[in-house]
Amino acid sequence: MKHGFAITAVLFSVLANAVLTKGWIAPSPSKFVANRNLQSRYGSFRGNSIIVTRRYMANSSSTIDADLNAEPKNGFRNQLQAKNESSTAVNSGIQTDMPSVLDINPELIDIVKKNYSSKEDGATVSSSVSDMFRTAHFVDMFRGSANYIASHRNTLVVCHIPGDWIDNEDPTIFRNLMNDVALTWLLGLRIVIVVGCRYQIEQRMKNRTKHMNMVVTDAESLRIVKEEAGYVRFEVERQLARSLQGSRGREGDGNVVSGNFYSAQPFGVLDGVDYQYSGFVRRFEADKIRQVHQNRDIVLLTTLGVSPTGEVFNVNSEYLAAYAGGALGASKVVYFLERDVELRHKVYGTKIPHLRVHDSRNLLKLHGIETKKKGFVLVNDECINSDEQKNMLVKIGWSMHALESGVKRVHILTPEKGALLQEMYTRDGAGTMISGDLYDGIRQARVTDVSPIHDLISPLIKMGTLVDRPKAILERDIHQYHVYTRDDLVVATGQLKLFKEGSAELACLVVNPLYRAKGRGDAMLGYLERLCLQQGANKVFVLSTQTMEWFLERGFDEVGVGSLPPSRQATYNKSRASKIYMKTIDSVRDLDASELLWNR
Fold it and tell me: Which part of the chain is the N-acetyltransferase domain (predicted)?
């Protein structure tokens, strides 16, 4: 897995250069225009004898500082002079066909058939660049990431970085993360970084006063918080400035902007304890942050919030990230774990890459974790086995806070190289994703739903789109049906029939005309597909005479009757001649990827 992260990071670095050089994202086109005008007017510049300064770039085209008489290096004096004598001057005296010592004699260039890496008769023929990309499956990776790049472009993402990453014993962890953040910025993300400093503070204050797992920030503690918040802020600015410069390859945009983008107020006295300078967000300047993003800059927030009276308060950084995500309408909030941990199923031993809100609530309740809207978390230490477990659960708790504030998805990542890129731009991801309940309102049908289902599908039966299903048949098979309800009204339905061969048929997928084009059909399809995977059926098929395009757009492929399970082949109605469409679901992340495209 670590090698996979490394390969992903390398490939996306190559992709970044392609994006930059091809001009896919060019916030300052005037600079490129100036360069192109310069080349088109004066030709291509080569050699050590020409120096063009910024004066031309300032649109003073009448003056070009060109040191045409610059002394060449000693080893090339005679050779350059001989070649310069044969060159042709054009326009204002700038020479466009000036030969270079780096020129290749055209007589030495041959055009031959390309050889790929192979081993024949003990000899190895290789093309190193081609081999590297073939080994890393660059083309497949690029194609697979295209939808994610397009989907995430111009979306807002809040990243929470704990202080542990900044002072980690392995300095490459923080440096690699900043490089990845810069790369996502280059690919079009609007980024807000919230940086914590709890680790730095705890290194200086081993015995901080706490009550209900909340830190009491007194005057002395606040002084240390100010120092450490300033330290982590400038460390992020320093490293990110370097990473942005390497990504953009030019000056003018991609700065790191920090300031008083939110005001804070004190907790006050809770349960008889005065928390003094511990506080929470009072007002958030979302419009000012959006204005910064219009300039293609990155916003950096620390845990220090200033009140209108000029007092400074210490704000929980995880809470601040969740609050910022909700206030800004962020597409994602990304939390980075201090330790390398993940969620695993106790029975199957498999990694759990995705949690729904309902599952997350149950997990937090089991372990006695409760987050409060004022920016603190209550922890029942008796239900916690380790600091690593506590760290993960607290992140899940604040993830819930972000989702309840309107954020669509929250990602929790470990300190792995390339984890951010892997999570954002690949199907399999790298960490744990928590998302809202897109299937809220979907449940298994009951006998009382027979009449509403029949009323919903009757118009399509009359049109011949659906096979007739009398109420008696619906009642007999009601355990196979699921309904999507809104205020006790059945607005969509779908039937799931499982087969022993590890496949399942989706049938009778109908949405009320008043609720179409609102994602109800996609939600019902996704819900039924997840049920299939849960029941061990990874092949899903449908039979249709009218809605073929809808299923093709959602990853189904047309197949023949022979692809159906034998028992279903026996009942296939040849006179109706329905077309058959099948889809293979490899993992839950497949379905997560599909949801990303229809629920942006």
Answer: 440-578
